[in-house]
Amino acid sequence: MKKNLWIMLSLVSVALLLSGCSEFDQPISEDSEGFWNEYIVWPLVSFIKLFADMFEGNVSNYAFAIIIVTVIIRLIILPLTIKQVKSSKKMQEIQPKLKELQAKYSSKDAVTQQKYQQEMMQLMQNSGVNPLSGCLPIFIQMPILIGFYHAISRMNATSAFELGSFLSVPLAEPSIVFAVIAGLIQYVVLMTGPAVDNPQMKIMMYIMPLMIVGFGIVLPAALSLYWVVGNIVSVLQNLAIYKPWNKNKPEATDKGAK
């Protein structure tokens, strides 16, 4: 039953993402058809417009609206984010025991690998770790975050929306300054997140900010502003959840014990 549910969720998520990606640079209106447009992108566009109208007459009204809606959406999905983080932390805590099992059952024959799978599942069960529970929040968050990303991009492609400017930067045009700021804050997000031991993941920590800068240089500044605000919220979440200033404390304790 659970397996079927996960397959359905995966298929729905992929269908939503694919349907959205095909209209990335197309205008959006209340007459736009399709599930992605009617139930995700247009409601988000209307939400942004609602706040923009509150600042009508100000050249930065859409910038203020993007900032406010970004924060609201991040707060709405915060419980899911916390659930995902807790699952990741539990998985990290059992990593030493998982490595011991991998070393114990290093042989690749079927019998040994079956024993390895059984003991691994037993370890996860005893530790309260469910790998799938960490994926559910991601499946739910992705359509919302990508939909918001699409809403901003497609508003920029719609003549009915004048995005204006923010801090003298036109939001409809690419901005190197906003792109670099977004990349730098993305790096801070990764540095304040969970400790990474995997060498490939460490490389990604340096590549992702560069990718954000690269995209920001060619995409409208409104999207870079969305990344900047979203990443600032992520940094605050990391500081509250991971407490990165405590990362080295266990090592210091161990050294003192020796």
Notes on the protein architecture:
- The protein has 258 residues and is mainly α.
- The chain is 73% helix and 2% strand.
- It has eleven helices and two strands, in the order αααααααββαααα.
- The protein has helices at 2-21, 35-54, 61-76, 78-93, 95-104, 110-127, 136-156, 176-192, 199-218, 221-241, 249-257; strands spanning 165-166, 169-170.
- A two-stranded antiparallel sheet has the order 1-2.
- A hairpin with a 2-residue loop joins strand 1 (165-166) and strand 2.
- Helix 1 packs parallel to helix 7, helix 2 (35-54) packs across helix 7 and helix 8 runs parallel beside helix 10 (221-241).
- The protein is elongated, with a radius of gyration of 22 Å.
- The relative contact order is 0.12.
